[in-house]
């Protein structure tokens, strides 16, 4: 990838870790440029669109960029990039927003034959509550839009259904039957003529030490065994082909839950860059095709790559559990996690990623409950056979939270 001609734009540089892309970001989160370009422009909001409104960013892109990847695309951003003569390397915003809308997805995916849990959709209120209760308990209430489980609520009784439909009255949403099982995520790339699907990973979900949201995603373990792997791949390929037919291009994620009895249910899709992108880039840096280069190839900004996608990195994502906390005592860097959980820092972390044998720790400034506080990227497994965190990582989480949150 030519870092002087394709730029990544986003709130922070983490999605560009290990890619060699030039970066324009709002904050650096302690990451250093290394051999890459890193341009920091503080903005009042976290959106990439706000970066594109800065004259200095416009001048930089107009002079240097033939393409730009954004963490989350938008129609105004697409228009601005066209004005600058820069190709937007994101799925068309109109397509992505429609497909990521949970209410639309449930109906459209079910109509396409994908295995979606029994669901009702509509505007929150008495009518949606009555329709939801016809599905039977337990349920999951979700607003149509929301990330990392922030707008997802498990429901175990009738009163809770009514309460949520009252609290969020007037907001579009969906209510689905709760599927008990193993959360799994599959990522890949939709190209104009085909889809490339990578190996599935165990999705860490609702771990109280990591996230305040009962069903919030909080990490990926690519070394853990995934139940019903053949079925998971078959369903994810079907979902990927559907996304491509719907007009999506580039990276995507498919979230599934595999029930104990063997059924694999498609819960939602993410037609955009996903949280695991740095794991794929670090794996490609070490060996194998690159997820992000395939993404660029979908938009004519890089050569296509043959061969299967591979990923041998995993990650823990720690979200802020309280509204206000002091900053963590440890800083962004590379190092190793000791058996007792202490992070033994070995040096700074740059955009090339940690050196061989080291893990990457990215620490952010506290900003609010439910916002990402820190992320650990490491090779190998992070969970035991029962899905619990490995003892060393349990210790790591306790130690990191002792400083900022007094846990």
Descriptive report:
The protein has eleven helices and 20 strands. With 407 residues, it is of the alpha+beta class. The longest helix is centred in the middle third of the chain and has 17 residues, at 229-245.
How is this fold's topology laid out?
Blueprint: E1 6-10, E2 22-25, E3 38-40, H1 48-52, H2 55-64, E4 67-70, H3 75-84, E5 87-88, H4 93-100, H5 102-111, E6 119-123, H6 126-133, E7 139-143, E8 152-155, H7 158-167, E9 172-177, E10 181-190, E11 195-197, E12 201-205, E13 217-221, H8 229-245, E14 250-259, E15 264-270, H9 277-286, H10 291-298, E16 313-319, E17 333-337, E18 343-347, E19 359-363, E20 372-379, H11 391-405
Parallel strand pairs: 1-2, 1-4, 2-3, 4-5
Antiparallel strand pairs: 6-9, 7-8, 7-9, 10-11, 10-12, 10-14, 12-13, 13-16, 14-15, 16-20, 17-18, 17-19, 19-20
Per DSSP, the total helix count is 11
Low-confidence stretches: none
| Helix-residue proportion | 25-40%
- Judging from the principal axes of the Cα atoms, what is the shape? globular
Query: What is the straight-line distance between the termini?
Result: 43 Å
Helix-and-strand structural type: alpha+beta
Q: Care to count the β-strands? A: 20
Biggest β-sheet, characterized?
A: 11 strands, antiparallel
Rg over alpha carbons = 21 Å
Kindly report the average pLDDT value: 93
Query: Strand portion, in percent?
Result: 25-35%
């Amino acid at each position: 990838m030519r870092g002087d001609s394709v730029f990544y734009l986003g709130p922070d540089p983490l999605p560009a870790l290990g890619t060699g892309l030039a970066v324009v970001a709002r904050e650096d989160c302690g990451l250093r440029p290394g051999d890459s370009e890193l341009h920091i422009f503080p903005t009042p909001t976290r959106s990439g669109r706000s970066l594109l409104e800065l004259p200095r960013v416009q001048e930089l892109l107009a002079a240097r960029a033939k393409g730009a990847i954004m963490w989350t695309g938008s129609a105004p951003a697409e228009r601005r990039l066209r004005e600058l003569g820069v190709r937007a390397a994101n799925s068309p915003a109109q397509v992505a927003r429609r497909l990521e809308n949970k209410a639309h997805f449930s109906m459209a995916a079910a109509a396409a034959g994908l295995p979606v849990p029994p669901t009702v959709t509509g505007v929150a209120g008495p009518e949606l509550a009555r329709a939801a209760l016809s599905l039977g308990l337990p349920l999951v209430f979700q607003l149509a839009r929301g990330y990392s489980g922030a707008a997802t609520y498990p429901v175990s009784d009738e009163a809770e259904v009514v309460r949520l439909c009252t609290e969020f009255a007037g907001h579009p949403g969906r209510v689905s039957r709760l599927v008990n099982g193993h959360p799994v995520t599959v990522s890949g790339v939709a190209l104009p003529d085909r889809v490339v699907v990578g190996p599935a990973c165990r999705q860490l979900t609702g771990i109280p030490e990591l996230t305040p949201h009962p069903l919030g995603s909080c990490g990926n373990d690519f070394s853990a065994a995934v139940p019903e792997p053949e079925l998971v791949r078959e369903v994810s390929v079907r979902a990927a082909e559907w996304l491509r037919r719907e007009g999506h291009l580039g990276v995507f994620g498919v979230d599934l839950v595999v029930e104990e009895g063997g059924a694999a249910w498609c819960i939602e899709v993410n037609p955009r860059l996903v949280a695991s992108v740095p794991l794929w880039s670090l794996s490609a840096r070490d060996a194998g095709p690159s997820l992000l280069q395939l993404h660029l190839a979908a938009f004519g900004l890089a050569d296509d790559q043959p061969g299967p996608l591979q990923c041998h990195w995993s990650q823990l994502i720690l979200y802020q559990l309280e509204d206000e906390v002091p900053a963590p005592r440890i800083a962004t860097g590379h190092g190793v996690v000791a058996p007792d959980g202490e992070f033994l820092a070995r040096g700074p972390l740059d955009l090339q990623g940690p050196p061989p044998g080291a893990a990457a720790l990215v620490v952010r400034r506290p900003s609010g409950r439910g916002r990402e506080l820190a992320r650990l990227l490491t090779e190998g497994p992070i969970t035991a056979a029962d899905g619990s965190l490995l003892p060393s990582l349990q210790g790591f989480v306790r130690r990191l939270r002792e400083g900022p949150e007094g846990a």
